[in-house]
Specification:
Layout (H helix, E strand, L loop, with lengths): L6 E5 L6 H12 L2 E4 H15 L6 H10 L2 E6 L2 E6 L2 E2 L7 H10 L3 H15 L4 E5 L2 H5 L5 E6 L2 H14 L7 H17 L12 E4 L5 H13 L1
Helix pairs in contact: 1-9, 2-4, 7-8
Length: 223
């Protein structure tokens, strides 16, 4: 790998602001951003489209073996292609989120996605966010960050986001319950659980906005 190529790993629980921060950092540093969560969401969408139970190991294996998942970058924006169809705009629903949380617990799914992620980030500088970037995907990343925030703060953000989109199907209590469930599933799964690695800088975003968080992250990199 060239000395001019480096990776920034950003890990953290659901709703901590990883994706927004990663996009901001990539833009500020003029490098690429890889959204690993979108890859699991695309697998989840495939399971929904084909009627596969995400808790059925053999069915998921069969689906994974037959589906074609591609990532294309157009003008610096990541597009998810599932079996030839651009599904970038279809993977952000709550149904897909829950299915993605289930499907990502299978070790063989994570192995396949991690292999893709490493290949993509091998030849140029990337900001990569997820649950296991610093620990598994890019353990040798030059910069590692772990974003955290209280479950309540993350639920408020998520609920506000859903409200702004006009999605009024969930109450704040529903969103909070879902975040607590996802935290438990992400932290306790056997394959690549959510952990803070020793050499990661922890940033608590409970009481600070995205601009302040980005300034903080960039200050560590500039140091």
């Amino acid at each position: 790998m060239s000395e001019n190529v480096y990776q920034i790993a950003i890990d953290g629980p659901s709703g901590s602001g990883k994706s927004t921060l990663a996009k901001g950092a990539a833009k500020a540093l003029n490098i690429m951003y890889l959204d690993t969560g979108a890859m699991y969401r695309t697998c989840a969408l495939c399971s929904i489209k084909t009627g596969v139970d995400t808790r059925d190991e053999e069915a998921v294996k069969k689906m994974l073996g037959s589906m074609k998942l591609e990532i294309k970058f157009q003008d610096g924006v990541q597009h998810m292609i599932l079996n030839g169809e651009d599904v970038t705009g279809s993977i952000r629903t709550e149904e897909v989120s829950k299915a993605a949380s289930n499907i990502s617990t299978w070790p063989f799914v994570r192995t396949a996605m991690v292999e893709m992620q490493r290949k993509i980030a091998a030849d140029q500088s990337f900001v990569v966010d997820g649950r296991d970037i610093g620990s598994v995907v890019l353990p040798n990343a030059k910069y590692k960050f772990f974003l955290t925030a209280s479950a309540e703060a993350r639920a408020k953000r998520r609920f506000l986001e859903l409200t702004q989109k006009g999605d009024n199907n969930q109450t704040y209590e529903d969103v909070l319950k879902d975040i607590i469930w996802r935290d438990k599933q992400d932290s306790e799964r056997a394959a690549s659980p959510l952990v803070k690695v020793d050499d990661a800088v922890e940033i608590d975003t409970s009481d600070i906005g995205i601009e302040e968080t980005l300034d903080l992250l960039l200050s560590y990199i500039k140091e």
